[in-house]
Amino acid sequence: MTQDEVTTTTTDDLLDDVLDSDNLARAWKRVKANHGAPGIDGVTIEDFAAHARAHWPAVRGQIRQGRYQPQAVRRVYIPKPGGGQRMLGIPTVMDRVIQQAIAQVLTPIFEPSFSASSFGFRPGRNAHQAIRQVQAIVTDGAHIAVDIDLAKFFDTVNHDVLMNLLGRTIADKRLLALIGHDLRAGVLVGEQVQPSEVGTPQGGPLSPLLANIVLHQLDLELQRRGHRFARYADDLVILVRSERAAQRVMGSITRYLETVLKLVVNRAKSKVAPMSACAFLGFTIKGKKIRWADKALADFKHRIRELTRRSWGVSMPYRLHRLGQYLRGWVGYFGISQYYRPVPELDEWIRRRLRMCYWKQWRWARTKIRNLLALGVSLKSAIQHGVSSNSYWQMSRTQVIQQAVSNAWLKEQGLLSVKDLWCKAQGYTEKRDKTNRTSSRVPTC
Fold first, then answer.
1. Which of 2, 174, 233, 329 is deepest in the core (most CB within 10 A)?
2. Is this structure's pTM higher than 0.90?
3. How far is CA 363 from CA 247, 323, 392, in A?
4. Element (H, E) at 169
């Protein structure tokens, strides 16, 4: 069943479902669990219960009467891993709860019609499934990628196109008006509210669903043409068997996006290339195997350098705690990479950086000698190294420091191993040989 085939007869009174007390309670529970910063009114998650008791009856009445005006979103910028900034729009907590309540009512209506090749912001779907679908298509011989980049997608969604698509399914004009008010609420930039004539700002609970409703039309067009693809929100890759076909697809789909959906294609970043030369959701497919993209690895190393920089004045237990959090999260996502070779090298590099941190933290020659002695280094070697004027990075590579601040000792302090995390993600298990030593069943590639 396509979106156009969804009947409107059951969508006349959706606003009542949105304002149902059970639905609102679930929405508040979800918003509360996500924490998040306050909007322009300054009301925090902790303050909202008392705020709602005082203001919700009036807000509910205004919504029913079609007079409710959501407050402008607060513009914030967050750094991207590879540089640059991403714009977010933070609605007030009240408006987040209302948007979440709307999303909970609309998702069951639109979700069944969405494409099987759409993976972003959908229940039971994730980026790993999208990557594995791309892998399966490449394995089947369609290895040329049409990599289309939508410029600032969330900030450029055309309101007329979106409202027209919603109106095909939603018959409740009160709910449509409320969504329209949300879209046009404006953005607080500095001390001035600027109008929001296009876009559905990232940061609101309803925006992901609205984005999928718009891009579902692209999915339908791709399916109508018989293309094989994977889409995660506004990240899209179409796979074909020849460069000539790919160039043709690039041109026709770009025209469709710009003329029908009124979106902006970033022609400088969009490209036609073998999938091995393209990155999708941080991964690429080389041969028939999934690998993390070079940029993803570069971003990983940049973050590790931040967590292990000598000038960060924190305790080593706290540093190891933060490092462990990051490693778990990174391998939890990128651990589906089937490329093993760089994994042991990453562990060696991280251990060396931590040895450098310990050497810097010990600081004084007296402290260095005392700690080296405590870690089993001979008095002569401890003195020689303790008074050395070599750099922290040079010292971290010496045999004495490696033996003192050993791999096993670092593990006791709480250092996680990228290799161990990767093996667990890949499903490898350890086995013991006849001498009772453990050896991981890890590829030697």
1. 233
2. no
3. 60, 22, 10
4. helix 159-169
Q: Which of 103, 124, 125, 109 is nearest to 27 (CA)?
A: 103
Q: What are 405-433's pLDDT values in tens digits? A: 999 999 999 999 999 999 999 988 655 44
Nearest one of 102, 103, 97, 89 to 16, comparing CA atoms: 102
Q: Which two tokens stand for residue 420?
A: 């161990």
3-class secondary-structure state, position 31? helix
Q: What is the pLDDT of residues 36-72, one digit of tens each?
A: 899 999 999 999 999 999 999 999 999 999 999 999 9
Q: How many helices (H) and strands (E) does the chain have?
A: 19, 12
Residue-wise burial string across 226-246, b where 16 or more C-beta atoms lie within 10 A, e elsewhere: ebbbbbbbbbbbbbbeeeebb
99 in Cβ contact with 204 (< 8 Å): yes
C-alpha gyration radius of the chain? 27
Enumerate the β-bridge partners of residue 145.
239, 273
Contact 48, 94 (CB under 8 A): yes
Exposed (0-12), middle (13-18) or buried (19+): which is 329, by Cβ within 10 Å?
A: exposed
CA nearest 329: which of 286, 280, 289, 282? Answer: 282
